[in-house]
Amino acid sequence: MTEATTAVVADIHIVIWYVLNPAKLSTKATEALEGCVAAGEPIRVSAHSLVELVYAVERPTNPFSEDDRQAVLEVFEAEDSPFEIVPVTAEIANRVASVPRTANADPGDRIIVATAEVLGLSIVSADSKFPSMTSLTVIA
Question: I need a labelling partner for 52 at 20 to 30 A (CA). Which of 4, 12, 61, 85 fits?
Answer without folding.
Answer: 4
